[in-house]
């Protein structure tokens, strides 16, 4: 019987060793995926915080979302274009950053619904930045309602970011 026992111990040891190795390698890969998502979140935030000014919008048809949606960009609705310090269109830069965030987060296993909330929160936050910049250009005519709008918009953006990060760091809780 010693031959059977050796075979059982060897097989059990191989199974346990493979499971531990698989778990440790997945842990390392998951850490890299989380880091990529965090990097993209910082990129999206940098775009929103990097709004330098608003300039008169281009004439012609209003730009549309790249996915073919019917919603026009926020700044085009009021006839202006939000620009970053380097002169790029802020909303286009944000769309690219959010697209990269979605790719990274889907790779990390974050559910699509949560990504939609997080992307929407960032989109609304940029819209608030544009409205605040337009109001600043007009001499601050909105006053207290603008402050309330900006505060609520930031609270919503923070809530969606917390939801995204919770799903990123605790994926099993999100799935339940």
What is the residue-averaged pLDDT?
Answer: 77
Let me know the largest β-sheet. Answer: 2 strands, antiparallel
Instruction: Say what oligomer this is.
Output: single chain
Number of strands: 2
Number of helices: 6
Protein topology:
Layout: H1 2-49, E1 51-56, H2 74-77, E2 80-84, H3 90-107, H4 112-138, H5 144-169, H6 171-175
Produce a short descriptive summary.
The protein has helices spanning 2-49, 74-77, 90-107, 112-138, 144-169, 171-175; strands at residues 51-56, 80-84.
Structure description:
With 176 residues, the protein is mainly alpha-helical. Helix content is 73%, strand content 6%. The chain is built from six helices and two strands. The chain has helices at residues 2-49, 74-77, 90-107, 112-138, 144-169, 171-175, and strands spanning 51-56, 80-84. Helix 1 (2-49) packs antiparallel against helix 3 (90-107) and helix 4 packs antiparallel against helix 5 (144-169).
Task: For this entry, give a set of tags.
two-stranded antiparallel sheet, 2 strands, 176 residues, elongated, mainly alpha, single chain
């Amino acid at each position: 019987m010693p031959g059977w026992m050796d075979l059982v111990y060897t097989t059990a040891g191989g199974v346990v060793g493979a499971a531990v190795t698989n778990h440790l390698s997945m842990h390392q890969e998951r850490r890299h995926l989380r880091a990529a998502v965090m990097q993209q979140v910082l990129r999206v935030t940098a775009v929103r915080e990097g709004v330098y000014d608003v300039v008169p919008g281009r004439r012609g048809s209003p730009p549309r979302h790249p996915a073919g949606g019917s919603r026009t960009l926020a700044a085009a609705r009021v006839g202006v274009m939000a620009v970053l310090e380097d002169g790029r269109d802020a909303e286009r830069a944000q769309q690219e950053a959010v697209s990269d965030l979605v790719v990274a987060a889907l790779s990390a296993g974050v559910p699509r619904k949560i990504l939609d909330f997080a992307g929407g929160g960032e989109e609304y936050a940029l819209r608030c930045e544009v409205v605040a910049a337009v109001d600043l250009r007009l001499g601050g005519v909105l006053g207290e309602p603008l402050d309330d709008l900006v505060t609520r918009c930031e609270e919503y953006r923070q809530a969606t970011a917390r939801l995204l990060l919770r799903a990123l760091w605790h994926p099993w809780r999100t799935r339940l």
